[in-house]
UniProtKB/TrEMBL annotation:
Gene Ontology cellular component list: glyoxysome
Swiss-Prot/TrEMBL catalytic activity: D-threo-isocitrate = glyoxylate + succinate
Alphabetical keyword list: Glyoxylate bypass, Glyoxysome, Lyase, Magnesium, Metal-binding, Peroxisome, Tricarboxylic acid cycle
Binding note for cofactor: Can also use Mn(2+) ion.
A GO MF term: metal ion binding
Claim: Magnesium is one of the keywords in the record: yes
Organism: Zingiber officinale (Ginger)
Cited PANTHER family: BIFUNCTIONAL GLYOXYLATE CYCLE PROTEIN, ISOCITRATE LYASE/MALATE SYNTHASE
Signal sequence residues: none
Residues annotated for Mg(2+) binding in this entry: D83
Family: Belongs to the isocitrate lyase/PEP mutase superfamily. Isocitrate lyase family.
Subcellular location: Glyoxysome
Protein name: Isocitrate lyase
Pfam families, alphabetized: ICL
Length: 475
């Protein structure tokens, strides 16, 4: 139904998780459903696209030439962009997942930089990132599979670095500037994981453990290493001019993200010997490092992913034009031609965005001018279906068929929605014509006989029948 108006179809992992898992087990978007779930939905939609395209072609060929020319053509074969979540595991799983997507009709796939085992919806808390290098491996694996299959499938790299607060590992130096460390030397030898383990052994649980963790975090004074250095320089007993000089020296080296080299510089060049900063002490009980999510962190990842993807998607927590501008400028400073994607998410409270209705109406073209080439709503269909189902069911329970007549059937007729004749929409006419072609142009078991929703013209049947007979006679 949307193909008449929109350019692409987005297949959401959230919706598949909530309404269409291959095990029929609904749940929140944790990517814990079988990894063929979204490819199955892609196949479902792709086959529907092909069917309605065939049905339309047959119907148009049944029309006289003049009527055919005046009848609008609908491009049902809109490209399907599918949610590949995190790739569902290691490199081989990502390869197999992408193979399924290609085989089942996806024109594009996006893969995000969260950990597979802790994956969350982009608008939920508790997101854990993988290292920059691990996600690049996922993107390379996806592209390799597309190349092996000889297809030009669009690959979208998504990052959740704006709102993430944890990261699996510190192995990649590009992540170092955003990892938080403890700056309180009094906590040396008292890691958070160790403190919580001791409390658990002592019988503590639930709210008590949470209170202990909150107290430890508050005492730790978590900072990035750069923040720690800046505070250290400002606390030195030196002149203001010298402080500014050293701060300037530190800022010049900002592009070098490796913590070990930056720590050495802080000690030997900036006079911060004995500076205390420890990124292992605050690690969670699961072993994750603390991460300071930000637009800057997303830009770093967007730049790193750009050579391996066709578009960059940065998941944001709100619709903010200024934030979009910062993301676009940051990525395009390193990759000027990079295309960007944006999730016009129903998770946003658009009424609370601070924008007027006019600004909301202009949001899409506004950020399009910044380079956001593909903009989509992840769950518009889900919410539309739910709204109609809820309001109709409530009214139907009260007013019966009058509710259906007023809310549904008359509105379909008024707006010329094709499902008004739902048998025809589902292809009954099409298969009646197939049946009559096989049986010489007439059938007593045609589904769309007189008195049903509509009657079928035989205009297309006879040329098809003649073609079939001539071909059969010839061969």
């Amino acid at each position: 139904m949307m193909a008449k108006y929109l350019d692409s179809i987005y297949v959401s992992g959230w919706q598949c998780s909530s309404t269409h898992t291959s095990t029929n087990e609904p749940g929140p978007d944790l990517a814990d459903y079988p990894y063929d779930t979204v490819p199955n939905k892609v196949a479902h939609l792709f086959l529907a696209q092909q069917f309605h395209d065939r049905k339309q072609r047959e119907a148009r060929m049944s029309l006289p030439r003049a009527a055919r020319a005046s009848t609008p053509y609908v491009d049902y074969l809109r490209p399907i962009i599918a949610d590949g979540d995190t790739g569902f595991g290691g490199v081989t799983t990502t390869v197999k997942l992408c193979k399924l997507f290609v085989e089942r009709g996806a024109a594009g796939v996006h893969i995000e930089d969260q950990s597979s085992v802790t994956k969350k919806c982009g608008h939920m808390a508790g997101k854990v990132l993988v290292s920059v290098s691990e996600h690049i491996d996922r993107l390379v694996a996806a592209r390799l599979q597309f190349d092996v299959m000889g297809v030009a499938t669009v690959l979208i790299a998504r990052t959740d670095a704006v709102a993430a607060n944890l990261i699996q590992t510190n192995v990649d130096s590009r992540d170092h500037p955003f990892i938080l460390g403890c700056t309180n030397p009094n906590l040396q030898g008292r890691s958070l994981a160790g403190v919580l383990a001791e409390a658990t052994a002592a019988g503590k649980s639930g709210p008590e453990l949470e209170a202990i963790e909150n107290e430890w975090i508050s005492a730790a004074k978590l900072r990035t290493f750069s923040e720690c250095v800046v505070e250290g320089i400002r606390s030195l007993s030196i002149g203001e001019g010298e402080k500014q000089r050293r701060l300037g020296e530190w800022a010049k080296k900002h592009d070098d993200s490796n913590i070990e080299r930056r720590r050495k510089m802080a000690e030997t060049q900036l006079g911060l010997e004995g500076l205390f900063w420890d990124w292992d002490l605050p690690r969670t009980r699961e072993g994750f490092y603390r991460f300071q999510g930000s637009v800057e962190a997303a830009v770093v990842r967007g730049r790193a992913f750009s050579p391996h993807a066709d578009l960059i998607w940065v998941e944001t927590s709100r619709p903010d034009v200024a934030e979009c501008a910062a993301l676009a400028e940051g990525v395009k400073a390193a990759h000027p031609e990079m295309m960007l994607a944006y999730n016009l998410s129903p998770s946003f409270n658009w009424d609370a965005s601070g924008m007027t209705d006019e600004a909301v109406g202009e949001f899409i073209p506004t950020i399009a001018r910044l380079g956001f080439c593909w903009q989509f709503i992840t769950l518009a269909g889900f919410h539309a279906d739910a709204l109609v189902a809820d309001t109709f069911a409530k009214d139907f329970a009260r007013r019966g068929m009058l509710a259906y007549l007023e809310r549904i059937q008359r509105e379909e007729r008024k707006k010329k929605v094709e499902t008004l004749e739902h048998q025809k929409w589902s292809g009954a006419n099409y298969y009646d014509r197939v049946l009559k072609t096989v049986q010489g142009g007439i059938s007593s078991t045609a589904a769309m006989a007189k008195g049903n929703q509509s009657t079928s013209s035989l205009f297309f049947i006879y040329p098809l029948l003649i073609f079939y007979r001539e071909t059969h006679r010839r061969y």
